[in-house]
Amino acid sequence: xxxxxxxxxxxxxxxxxxxxxxxxxxxxxxxxxxxxxxxxxxxxxxxxxxxxxxxxxxxxxxxxxxxxxxxxxxxxxxxxxxxxxxxxxxxxxxxxxxxxxxxxxxxxxxxxxxxxxx
Length: 118
Description:
Blueprint: H1 5-11, E1 27-31, H2 38-50, E2 66-73, E3 78-85, H3 95-101, H4 114-117
Protein name: SSF1 protein
InterPro entries: Brix, PPAN-like
Main location: nucleus
């Protein structure tokens, strides 16, 4: 079973697709691949070698824009494949500063000083 990208995009209220998402490889997450069966180990190895490994000490977290989750169900022997878009959102800051960090410029005509925005 699968869904076409046009069907997925049409079902979303606000879709976020831009070219910069696909400039770097996704973060690969494998779930339930720890079984001792040889075919499961082979599948895990195949998926791991499809994407470059990530050096956790040197990776720039701002370059990770996608996450790929592959989950194996041992009872049904089916794979579930999910591809997520990752968005970095500032937390714990004022609304005006959040807009500046997201490169959206707020309306400052009502403000007398920049400190009111911050």
